[in-house]
Amino acid sequence: MAVTAKSLILDLLSTLKGGSMPVRALVAAGDVFGLEENGVRVALARLLAAGLVERDERGQYRPGSRAEALQREVTSWRTVEDGLRRWQGDWAGVHVGALPRSARDRAARTRALRLVGFRELAPRLEIRPDNLAGGVEALRGRLRALGLEQSAIVFRLGALDRATEARARDLWDTTALRSAYREARAEIARSEKRLPTLPRHAAMTESFVLGGRVIRQIVLDPLLPEPIVPAGERQALVAAMRRYDRVGRACWADFLREFGVLHDRTPADLRLADGAARAAGAQA
Q1: Domain that holds residue 128
Q2: pLDDT, tens digit, for every residue of 225-262?
Q3: Position 219 in a domain
């Protein structure tokens, strides 16, 4: 899948260590990925109008307020395990039966629920294990910040009958999850060996695309508790990605230094931010 101007802009800005980024840096980064200058500038103008980016007094750009909740989700990948607590067997539920059904409302709602690992147990009833730090109260605020309607009913659910409990635990394909953890770690290991041998722009693009794919995988992981899926393989993937993030940051360091940009992680093709642009109505 080709890198888009929107995802490139939003993902580059999400790496900033405070401060902002000049438009010429965004245009130059676009050129690395074969994006025309005019396309980058048009995407930037539309993101600005949608509130997903902001411009400071020097005409430089930083993430906008409408992207804050999603950016928190994206940048939390390094510490996802810190956001978990021991599972006591209860479930968190969201009832969406009486909520608006317009395409835009459904898209924002679905994105919020999938980002936090919910799956549909019954028509209009979404659940996940209640193993996130802060419990249902914190989960309620997090979902609403991500776009779930205020009127959605978010609650704790327990004492399921045996058949329903078994069906709930089977909502996630744990075999596929574990296989994906292993495959991503193998891809990271291969790329770590290859990056030092590549020309600068090739190393920048590979670390951007692969790093983004693995970070998306971690951000979208349902973070299932130990009785449903072993946590060790997920933890190993996060550790491998932390290491790869340092390698990727080195690939981008000279380029960003040329524009005086301070960054605290590797630029990566996250595409979650691109989804936020669509949800906010920034048309392509």
Answers
A1: 90-157
A2: 999 999 999 999 999 999 999 999 899 989 988 888 77
A3: yes
